[in-house]
Amino acid sequence: MKTTPNISIIISTYNSVEWLKKTLWSYEFQTVSDFEIVIADDGSGEETKRCIEAFHERTKIPMIHVWQEDDGFQKSRILNKAILACNSDYILMSDGDCIAKSDFLEQHLKYREKDHFLSGGYFKLPLDISQQISREDIEKEHCFDIDWLKERGLKTSFKNTKLTAKGLTADLLNNITPTNASWNGHNASGWKKDILSVNGFDERMQYGGQDRELGERLINMGLKSKQIRYSALCLHLDHPRGYKTEETLTKNAAIRRNTRKKRYAYTYYGIKKGDDLE
User: Which domain holds residue 74?
Assistant: First the structure.
């Protein structure tokens, strides 16, 4: 008999197989096992499909591959399709270039709360270190070890505290950080019913702030956001962003300003459209 997973993880991807492999490997070593992976694939080719199939064959992790035709950067659209495909009533969203720490899911489940969404953290790695990380480095968490990273050229910074903070220290830093507890596409979680209530992502938006805009509508609906950036951590692997344009950034910024100014909680350009709005 099929059971409902405790949490669904949506992982977005587009033709970035090597980074996707490392991302998927990290979910093999989680401290919890009752979860499913939903791949939100924005039009990748056959190589990505083979990568996902190969991973699925060698693990017991339930997986769903949601794919759409390549139509430029349409992450909002594929994420909305992935949301509908999730079987759990609680959803975590991350990207196919983010390696999850072994307690990543455990921390999201620990801190989840009614009428809240969670804002997790990420630690951005330079390209050369990103390329060096192997499956064994993920399994043994070398890539989260500050000494291992410094041996490979990581510079000293206060940001490195994300890698070393634990327990009460992490809780303290979560509470005093000036960083806004926003919905971040690389690491955020919330209840499926709440995401559906605001009609998911605004599909007018391409790259640049579409995740934050979703979080702003959730807050306008009455939800509170909780900061766990030092407790739930993923590593962000570096890569170029050819889809980033001034035109889309300007358009998205205008939509976000309107959402904040008019305190919109619902978008008419999301999961439900046209006749479905009745």
Answer: 7-269
